[in-house]
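To: structure desk
From: M.T.
Subject: fold request, one chain
Message: Could you run this one when you get a chance? Sequence is below, nothing fancy, just the single chain.
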Amino acid sequence: QVQLVESGGGLVRAGGSLRLSCAVSGFNINNYRMGWFRQAPGKEREWLAGVDWSGTYTYYGDSVKGRFTISRDNAKNLVALQLNSLKPEDTAVYYCAACSGYGDIRTMSAYDFWGQGTQVTVSS
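Reply: Done. Structure tokens follow.
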């Protein structure tokens, strides 16, 4: 059974940090590129970051570049997203996802599996 379980969300003040984790099971993470998205109320799901199969190459959306860092540990079946310098506009549900092919990892359609999400709330 494929599972992606996000954790680490919560309430934090502006300027603070959080570390999100995504624990995967039921598939071989080595064969998947991984990504993080978020969705705020009333808004479309937004791609934030992606990482290649080995963790060598990382990619970021403009809204989070320089503040968020994606990483993976294939031996532990984990993907992480470090969130620094948080802003109230970062408030959203954060999702990790797994991409098996070579599609554009900035697009939702490229992903095969999704987690249920973890809430991040940033107060001003």
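Reply (cont.): The chain has a mean pLDDT of 97. Let me know if you need anything else for the meeting.
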